[in-house]
Amino acid sequence: MAKPKSKSKGEVKISLQNLSMPELNYPVFCFKHLQTKPDKDYKFYTEFILRLVKLCNLSWKEIDKTHKHSFGTEKMEIKFLKPDMPSFVTPDMDSLTVFRANGDNRPFLGIRRSNVFHILFIEEQFGDVYDH
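The structure assignment produced for this chain is given below.
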């Protein structure tokens, strides 16, 4: 391992050797595979970001025990979704996980891999991703 550079005035020295990675028990949200192009509903996206912050303060166990129209989830079969699936979704997958994006129950959908939730679709307008 390379020697850390000496710290200059005002810098904080952090050694990677001292950082431990405890098992995360909260969701980490990833937008890499997002298929939805955000429109101009700024209020919706502000509420969505605030919802993500609240979800990150819950454990996965707490989320699993919460009602689907609150901070919990439900499954949605892929066959009921309108958009095509990205290549990230393999043929053996038959459903996506649905969270609520804000207080009016518009959803965002994705795939959980370990503690990372990969967001694929955000339904800005009801009916864009699936019929309700």
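Interim note for the steering committee: Helices lie at 42-56, 60-65. The mean pLDDT is 87.
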